[in-house]
């Protein structure tokens, strides 16, 4: 399973999430403590928003802990909002096009989990994509397809409805060999962070959030710092929507 982390708040260096915390994303890529796999070495990536709203993206196939470019870039880039991800492949080869985050317009998206019996249902799901979204499909992961489906189901108009609609679509897929859909996802349009935790078998991947005194918000698969008592676990079948001035959680009606 993958590990992910995000920040929204005052400008900080990306290394304050990716490198320097005691249980940083790089540490989690080598020694995850709340996942089936301790090592997440099938590539990494991060997306960040500039002050003018432009969206930057860097992804590569190396294990995060071996890439000197990542260490250098994360110390130099400062942002008010960014997403970062280390990958443990469940579907799709190790390639840059399969590394998270995925982006479209102002949206960025990353995911830890799987769509139920994806190998069996992939063709049918891809056939439901609009021509516009199908032309954007660069890789072959279920995560990228999840993102494109969200966009097709109205993510830009009503994020909550789009999430509910796509998760309901997954729920209606026949499970092969008792497989399940499991989702821990974080996405952003540059103005807000949205986190989703859901599964069809009540075994969602972990997802935590921590509100800072300065108004900043961390979201991560596992607490980044040695203060786990200050981190809140996002409840099963719930979503979080945060802006610079608000934070709301709600149950998903799936």
Structure in words:
It contains 7 helices and 13 strands. With 254 residues, it is of the alpha+beta class. It has a single domain, classed as 4-Layer Sandwich (Glutamine Phosphoribosylpyrophosphate, subunit 1, domain 1). A hairpin with a 5-residue loop joins strand 2 and strand 3. Helix 6 crosses helix 7. The model has no long low-confidence stretch (mean pLDDT 94).
CATH superfamily: Aminohydrolase, N-terminal nucleophile (Ntn) domain
CATH class: Alpha Beta
Number of helices: 7
Q: What CATH architecture would you give? A: 4-Layer Sandwich
**Structure classification:** alpha+beta
Percentage beta strand: 25-35%
In angstroms, what separates the terminal alpha carbons? Answer: 23 Å
Q: Got a strand count?
A: 13
In the predicted model, the low-confidence regions spanning at least 5 consecutive residues are: none
Q: Any idea how many domains? A: 1
Which whole number gives the mean pLDDT? Answer: 94
CATH topology: Glutamine Phosphoribosylpyrophosphate, subunit 1, domain 1
**Helical residue percent band:** 10-25%
Question: What is the string of SSEs from the N terminus onward?
Answer: EHHEEHEEEHHHHEEEEEEE
Radius of gyration: 17 Å
Major sheet, described briefly?
Answer: 7 strands, antiparallel
Q: What best-fitting shape do the alpha-carbon axes yield?
A: globular
Main sheet: strand order: 3-2-4-1-10-9-11
Question: In summary, what is this structure?
Answer:
The protein is of the alpha+beta class.
